[in-house]
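Figure 6 in text form: structure in, sequence out.
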């Protein structure tokens, strides 16, 4: 190094005047990696880097999204003031004006159209405290029955399946620490390598220890590459595939009779139905060679221990709930539950995908996973809230059905917190028109998202760096994220916004909170004695113990690492098996002459959900600047679509234009499009409105489409 260079570096070093460390937790997926944001103040500017921090779930690992999350939080487009739409333009107003405006409009709407004319639409990206408070806000401050949230599009199939089969829904029956020691793993419709990257070492370790990994996915992905066997099924046929696996398991007698006898109901009916099925036919339905079905079943059946994981590939189907139940049938039949290194995992999606589904944001739910239709549950929660149980509204409808109610004129106003439904809901043009029809829409967001653009009023809120609260991660582990940065401008925390509006509506008596911890303490009480019992968890314990797995019913309870060791959560302690038909009761869209290809949708590593945050993070956006359609070269040739060229994709609902991307990794009868982009690239313009009859999950993973090169479109 020359003298000159040395001098340069010394001066540079001196320029780094100070370093600040912000303790935080990633705002994105369900791993909820703990991390530190390091801010270096250099004379002219601030620079940032993020490093992982040790914790029981991810041991200090982070992925590229976590590494670059600060970029959206510090983005210049962050909302800092309440913004009111005046003649089509957003103008800054004060909080006093905003609250007055909300009060007047909410009151007017409820006077004109009834209490249920106001809907609340929530999210699983907010904290437990905020999710809890939003549920209470809808029922106590607004007295409306219409509340639901974006988790309906995410976790509802897995949640309903676990509730029906086990009597209780915690995504993982075991803690992650058991994965490395299991002998056989089925990964069904999950792309953990891109969606929960920091979970990967658990599976890599299992493999290193000799476990056999089976992946079920219509595409080869970074996840299926880890597997020993990849069942490349036709989209939407998981229920039938699970029947095929069960058939071999039963025929080859890998059945755990003692377990079934002691701990399950309904095996005989399942067995009878399975015996009546034809494996050849299952091979045809699923497109998976029978030899592979046999191999997978034998491996899973034979091994002493095994685990099954499902995610949105299986679940985001109009038979998602029963498809998951069929995978649970396999676990029960082989007795792989309630003991070490055996169990089920629904891999949660959003940061608080677990906690936000437990404390009252769902249309039919009260805190602690209680039911709004159960008299005892209503009485208990009403007593915590200090109201008469008769005042509690009844059950509402699911997220997409709220949009239908708007079109029908029953809902005329909405309070939207932390979601971008015109991009994330199926049948997107219908949803956009619904929101445009509202008399009054308030959106609480960090940015002017595509949906916020339609709002009458946008309220600025805090990002993960500024907001304190608990999040329940993929394992069911409740973790505390501390606030580490000051709020920008006049932004307020989501919980503060809810509290302020409740006060403006004259409900201060029920919303007298001045910190997240105070809300958590009420949540603890409201959840006490429920399925998801958080009573024994306190901020103090979370700080000391670094996370606790629920249920945790008292202050001395250590939390629950493994569920169902001696009994399931149904009254009689037994798991309930279900007969799942090969073909769903509500038929799925079929491909045919006009729409010959299956379309399935999902994610890429660098973007998050509707992309509002990641499209504003330069380091992430640069990796995937636009949407694309993954297509097999053979199929592309058939439809004369060159690689990397614009292609029109059409379904019965609408069309989009994206760039083609050749890939041998996908089935020739299927194309794949990620859903992180809006407007003319919004793949939900193509997805239909049909919902799973049990859990109201849309069929995001299956539509029939046709594709054509864009040049031809113009030529026509
Ligand atoms: N990078 C990134 N990570 C994320 C997110 C993100 O947006 N980006 N979102 C978070 C959220 S909220 C969620 S819910 C999770 C989602 O996590 P995943 O469910 O793992 O993600 P997806 O890409 O939606 O779908 C998973 C896989 O299902 C496959 N698939 C499609 N159709 C079928 C089918 O019919 N059957 C089967 N068996 N498989 C099928 C797809 O090819 C895909 O590889 O990820 C979380 N993590
Ligand atoms: N085709 C297709 N569609 C899908 C899916 C699919 O696989 N395929 N997956 C579905 C799934 S699993 C999910 S989870 C949904 C998610 O879909 P959305 O609910 O639309 O989720 P996001 O894109 O995360 O929208 C969150 C919004 O809240 C803002 N925000 C971020 N943090 C905060 C906060 O702390 N407070 C507030 N108030 N706002 C905040 C963001 O800026 C953004 O505008 O999409 C579903 N839609
Ligand atoms: S996106 Fe998920 S895996 Fe990546 S750092 Fe954030 S929480 Fe961890
Ligand atoms: Mo999700």
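Output sequence:
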């Amino acid at each position: 190094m020359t003298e000159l260079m040395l001098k340069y570096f010394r001066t540079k070093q001196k320029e780094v005047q100070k370093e600040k460390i912000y303790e935080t937790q990633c705002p994105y997926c369900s791993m909820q990696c703990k991390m530190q944001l390091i801010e270096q103040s250099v004379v002219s500017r601030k620079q940032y880097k993020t490093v992982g921090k040790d914790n029981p779930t991810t041991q200090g690992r982070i992925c590229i999204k976590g590494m670059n999350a600060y970029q959206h939080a510090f983005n210049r487009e962050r909302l800092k003031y309440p913004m009111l739409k005046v003649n089509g333009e957003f103008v800054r107003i004060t909080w006093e004006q905003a609250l007055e405006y909300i009060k007047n409009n909410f009151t007017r709407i409820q006077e004109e159209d009834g209490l249920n004319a106001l809907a609340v639409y929530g999210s699983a990206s907010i904290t437990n405290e905020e999710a809890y408070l939003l549920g209470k806000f809808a029922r106590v401050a607004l007295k409306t029955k219409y509340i639901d949230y974006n988790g309906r599009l995410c976790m509802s199939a897995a949640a309903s399946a676990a509730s029906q089969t086990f009597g209780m829904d915690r995504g993982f029956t075991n803690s992650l620490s058991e994965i490395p020691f299991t002998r056989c793993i089925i990964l069904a419709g999950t792309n953990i390598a891109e969606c929960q990257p920091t979970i990967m070492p658990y599976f890599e370790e299992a493999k290193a220890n000799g476990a056999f990994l089976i992946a079920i996915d219509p595409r080869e992905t970074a996840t299926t590459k880890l597997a020993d066997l990849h069942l490349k099924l036709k989209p939407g046929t998981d229920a039938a595939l699970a029947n095929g696996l069960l058939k071999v398991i039963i025929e080859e007698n890998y059945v755990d009779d003692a377990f079934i006898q002691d701990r399950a109901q309904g095996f005989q009916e399942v067995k009878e139905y399975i015996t009546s099925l034809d494996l050849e036919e299952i091979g045809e339905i699923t497109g998976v060679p029978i030899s592979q079905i046999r191999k997978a079943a034998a491996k899973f059946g034979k091994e002493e221990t095994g685990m099954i994981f499902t995610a949105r590939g299986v679940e985001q189907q109009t038979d998602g709930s029963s498809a998951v139940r069929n995978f649970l049938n396999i676990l029960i039949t082989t007795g792989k539950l309630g003991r070490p290194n055996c169990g089920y995992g629904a891999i949660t999606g959003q940061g608080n995908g677990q906690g936000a589904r437990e404390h009252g944001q769902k249309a039919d739910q009260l805190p602690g996973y209680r039911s709004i239709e159960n008299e005892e549950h209503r009485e208990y929660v009403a007593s915590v809230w200090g109201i008469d149980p008769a005042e509690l509204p009844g059950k509402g409808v699911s997220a997409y059905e709220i949009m239908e109610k708007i079109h029908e004129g029953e809902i005329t106003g909405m309070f939207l917190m932390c979601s971008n439904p015109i991009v994330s809901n199926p049948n997107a043009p219908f949803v956009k028109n619904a929101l445009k029809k509202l008399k009054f829409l308030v959106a609480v967001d960090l940015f002017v998202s595509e949906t916020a653009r339609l709002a009458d009023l946008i309220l600025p809120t805090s990002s993960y760096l500024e907001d304190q609260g608990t999040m329940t991660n993929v394992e069911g582990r409740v973790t505390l994220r501390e606030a580490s940065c000051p709020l920008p401008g006049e932004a307020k925390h989501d919980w503060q916004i809810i509290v302020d509006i409740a006060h403006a509506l004259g409900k201060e008596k029920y919303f007298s909170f001045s910190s997240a911890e105070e809300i958590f303490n009420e949540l603890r009480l409201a959840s006490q004695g429920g399925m998801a019992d958080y009573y024994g968890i306190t901020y103090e314990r979370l700080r000391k113990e670094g996370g606790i797995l629920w249920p945790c019913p008292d202050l001395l309870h250590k939390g629950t690492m493994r569920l169902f060791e001696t009994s399931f959560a149904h009254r009689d302690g037994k798991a309930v098996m279900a007969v799942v038909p090969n073909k769903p009761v509500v038929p799925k869209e079929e491909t045919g002459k006009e729409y010959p290809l299956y379309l399935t949708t999902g994610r890429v590593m660098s973007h998050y959900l509707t992309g509002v945050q990641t499209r504003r993070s330069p380091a992430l956006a640069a990796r995937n600047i636009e949407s694309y359609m993954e297509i097999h070269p053979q199929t592309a040739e058939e439809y004369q679509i060159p690689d990397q060229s614009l292609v029109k994709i059409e379904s019965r609902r609408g069309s989009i234009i994206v760039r083609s991307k050749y890939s041998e990794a996908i089935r020739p009868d299927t194309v794949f499009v990620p859903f992180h982009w809006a407007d003319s690239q919004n793949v939900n313009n193509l997805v239909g409105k049909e919902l799973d009859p049990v859990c109201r999950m849309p069929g995001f993973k299956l539509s029939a489409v046709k594709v054509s090169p864009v040049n031809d479109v113009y030529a026509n």
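Caption detail: The domain at 597-715 is CATH 2.40.40.20 (Barwin-like endoglucanases).
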